[in-house]
Amino acid sequence: MSMEEHLRSLTTELRNEDTMNIDSVNTMEIISAINKEDLKVAAAVQEVLPEIKTVVEWALESLKKGGRLVYIGAGTSGRLGVLDAVECPPTFSTPPDRVLGIIAGGEKAFVRAIEGAEDKEEFGECDLIDVDLTANDTVIGIAASGRTPYVKGALRYARKVGAKAVALSCNKNASITEAADIGIEVVVGPEVLTGSTRMKAATAQKMVLNMISTATMIRLGKVYENLMVDVNVSNQKLKDRAISIIETLTNADYDHALNMLEKANNQVKPAIVMIKTSTDYDKAMELLEKAGGDVRKAISIHED
Fold this sequence. Notes:
This protein is 52% helix and 8% strand. It has helices at residues 3-9, 27-46, 49-64, 75-92, 121-130, 149-161, 200-219, 236-250, 254-263, 268-277, 281-290, 295-303, and strands at residues 69-73, 99-103, 138-142, 164-169, 182-185.
């Protein structure tokens, strides 16, 4: 099979029989057709939950060992990885180097396509060498088609150094899966616009990446109940959110919540523990350390 024939055989490249006449209908019909296709995405993601679970466990283990979660991809897929990575520090107070997003062609490729950046396997390998990839890391290679050489090269290098290698694609039996330890293949079907994988495929990829990072952070103790207790208080909006979280979880009034947050050096977790256990900052930090950063466990330790 030639390269062109192989490309045409991919589900992500097939024509969608339900949208053949999309250029001749009105606006409501266009957006209704898009919405109808989007409804298929969550169901497709549900089919790969077992694989996602495995990857969350790997990412969790990597971060616990001092390793990293590394996303790598080209084009839209690469941008989605970068987007998920850059949201982790403000949301979960993770150091910027713990969840990395790497895009073929470098940072400038985020806002402007860099032609040819994804065409060579060695480019993916080199970009992982540049971040000093180790066996403690988990690498998620992202490619809707499942055949991007840049991603395949990155995954092969990840396995070579002993890191966990994960392939995220939107085609069955994807080529990049062969280069990985596990493949997450979310088959969403042909796009509304043939081959435009920025649509359903990208939506599926974002959903999966959101699941992986969020579930990993929850398991790391960065969430109490369903609130972001490790939010980084880096601006007034986030400070207001932090105060609201403390109020909600402790029934403290605004002034008390603000006072305890400031006594806790703008850290939400110790502020909550201080109020819940009637202790000072040092004791709250001691409890959190014993609990591995888990607020619920810290409170339980004090009660015991």
